Amino acid sequence: MSILVTVCILLLLAYIFDLTASFTKIPSVILLLISGWCVQQLATWFHVTVQDLNPLLPVLGTVGLILIVMEGALEIELDRSKIPMIKKSMVVALIPMVMLAFLLGYLFQYLGGYTLKDSLTYAMPFCVISSSIAIPSVKGLNSHIRDFVVFETSVSDILGVLFFNFLALNSIITTDSLVEFGIQIVVITIVSFIATVGLSLLLTKVNHHIKYSPIIIIIILIYGVSKFYHLPGLIFIIIFGIILGNLDQVRKLKFMHKLRPEALEGEVVKLKELLIEATFLIRALFFLLFGFLMETREMLNPDTILYAVGIVLAIILTRVFQLLVLKIPLMPLLFIAPRGLITILLFVAIVPLPTDAIINKSLIVQVIILTSLVMMLGLMYTPKNLTAEAEEKDDIEVDEKTIEKLES
After folding, report:
1. Torsion of CA 319, 323, 326, 331, to 10 degrees
2. Other C-beta atoms lying within 10 Å of the C-beta of residue 61
3. How far apart are CA 309 and CA 25, in angstroms?
4. Full DSSP string of 118-159
5. Quick one: residue 383, left, alpha or beta (phi over 0 = left, psi -120 to 50 = alpha)?
6. What CATH number labels 2-407?
7. How far apart are CA 242 and CA 56, in angstroms?
8. Least crowded by CB within 10 Å, which of 142, 161, 234, 403?
9. pLDDT for 367-377, tens place per residue?
10. Cα-flanking dihedrals φ and ψ of residue 141, to 5°?
């Protein structure tokens, strides 16, 4: 009973953190990690025995990743006016990732004596922007920045998992492994379109009062099966989300008429509402659990703090370079590059885990905390004209001008 009460109180706190994030500019992930850590300290103080919860972490993380990417994909609106933004966000996601991967890879190879392939594998978790932290943190910014962050972080998640799986699953990088990698992408793309059509039919045809939970379960099942066969399942998630989130665009295709897009739109709205609620719960539980499993010595480990600071500086420098080359304003996008859920998942997936004094859980924890703090400072100093409130005021002014012109 005490565990149930504790979990409920923590989830209510997580809700308060989410509500106040746009005012305090403090990323909720930091408060969640601290809350989880405080519960661990209290449990130790009162000699409360807790079973090993480590096996739950990758399960919650995987489900959270699926829900977060799908929610983000549903938010993406594809129209011609946003094509330049989409192209730039893809480049900003890809180029710094590759640059940082090789930079850290060579550093780990030099310091740890690993092979270049293993060094790149160890570097990949640090190269992926966490959509689970970035997307909720930019809710208070205008729609252009929000769209950019949603697309960039979703692409970063997908490419990061793709590259990591390619490095981790191939003992030797050869032409055959590259060809196989390309075939996997083609296969999952075909499966994604077939599955999207099938799930869309289920949304419009099923009349049972329980409809959306089975859909989400099937989505998670498809992702799990694709992962079993070493296919990039996140491609399915984002294709499914983008198609359902852009029914106005895809309804022009003839075969889409059979899916009854008018009826499907209403179902998508309800599915999206359920996704938002489920995503909040899973994300909060994941970071609370991760905070609970953190040791004080891991956060304050002096052996890794300099490496963590160096990695964060490398992240910022590669991002500065890319944004300047593409002539994208630095504020606030320069600082919105946190590491989080996907970083932890990729690190846990490394087999065998490195056991040296450089690449370990302490380094992961410190990089996540430092990048979140950098984002917090960046959001605090974001100009007011880039906020959602300023955008709403501009819309009101435009509407008033339009009314005046119509009246005259």
Report:
1. 160
2. 26
3. 22
4. HHHHHHGGGGS--HHHHHHHTTTB-HHHHHHHHHHHHHHHHH
5. beta
6. 1.20.1530.20
7. 29
8. 403
9. 999 999 999 99
10. -100, 170
